[in-house]
Amino acid sequence: MTTTLPVATGACCAPLVRAPLGAEDATRLAGTLRAIADPARLRLLSLVAAHEGGEACVCDLVEPLGLSQPTVSHHLKVLVDAGLLTREKRGVWAYFTLVPGALDSIASVLVTTGS
Amino acid sequence: MTTTLPVATGACCAPLVRAPLGAEDATRLAGTLRAIADPARLRLLSLVAAHEGGEACVCDLVEPLGLSQPTVSHHLKVLVDAGLLTREKRGVWAYFTLVPGALDSIASVLVTTGS
DNA sequence: CGTCAACATCGACGGCCGTCGATCTCCGGT
DNA sequence: ACCGGAGATCGACGGCCGTCGATGTTGACG
Is the keyword Ribonucleoprotein in the record (chains A, B) (predicted)? Predict the structure, then answer.
């Protein structure tokens, strides 16, 4: 599978503005950024974070997004593969939670004030 | 043109993890993120930032990227339209510079520690 | 054990986007 | 005025991706 590797744990140390990053690192980082460069997935992250208990199942997300259930599942899979969400199956439901620090590590790569 | 609006000045106040962001804001933010969700453009930002004086012309960027000159110009235009780079034409050369705070404002939207 | 519901997977379709070569525009130098 | 070079624009092509309906899988419940 051409799944994007979870960069959340490995991209925490590339200031981006310091030295010209290599083609390999650029591809990795771009893959992670592409995971959140989508309106539906941004809203999913936001919905999960704002939901009660910091977790939400698919049934909680389909309606507010206005997309079909397969599409929502697809986006959630992308976010899980990117290391931004965790999936926990309890009974028939699948609960998704934000990975702590994942978004922050992405943000830290972009920040320029880290001189 | 379907140019992405510069979000650098307007997206500085959406924590993303606080309240579920609307479809409109999600589209705006996704457009900005898509601008940097590309290996070539990430390297361009990095190259410009690391270049002497914080500015670089196209001729400085074509070779290190290994892409054609039209492609580099295209990527630079995307970054300028996204409000991440400024373009200043001096003589025959076009010099590009990082917009101060642009990347940081994107990062601030992603950060979750702003509670 | 049969049924229903939640979710994932599949296959297909359409549009967007990265890339290129060719060309156009504009400025400097001679 | 002419030429050369820097860079932007154009048109085209190929691949990736978001979306859907249909279907498969799995667990709860009677």
Answer: no
For residue A112, what is the nearest residue in chain B, using CA coordinates?
Answer: B104
- Cβ-Cβ pairs closer than 8 A, A with B, add up to 129
Of B30, B50, B107, the CB nearest to A18: B50
Residue A113 pLDDT class (50, 70, 90 cuts): confident
Task: State the pLDDT at residue A12.
Answer: 52
Query: b/e map of B49-61 (b: 16 or more CB within 10 Å)?
Result: bbbeeebbbeebb
Work out the average pLDDT over B73-88. Answer: 98
| Among the listed residues A90, A89, A106, A111, the one whose alpha carbon sits nearest the alpha carbon of residue A41 | A106
The spacing between the Cα labelled CA in A90 and the C1' in D29, in angstroms, equals 16
pLDDT value at A115 more than 70: no
The answer to whether B50 contacts A20, with C-beta atoms less than 8 Å apart, is: yes
Confidence of residue B94 (pLDDT cuts 50, 70, 90): very high
Cβ neighbours of A18 in B, within 8 Å: 49-50
**B91 inside domain:** yes
How many domains, chain A? 1
- Does residue A11 reach within 7 angstroms of strand C, measured from its CB? no
- Provide the CATH number for the domain around residue A98: 1.10.10.10
Q: Report yes or no on B52 lying in a domain.
A: yes
Structure tokens at B89: 């034409």
pLDDT in tens, B27-51: 999 999 999 999 999 999 999 999 9
Q: Is the dihedral of CA A4, A73, A102, B26 positive or negative?
A: positive
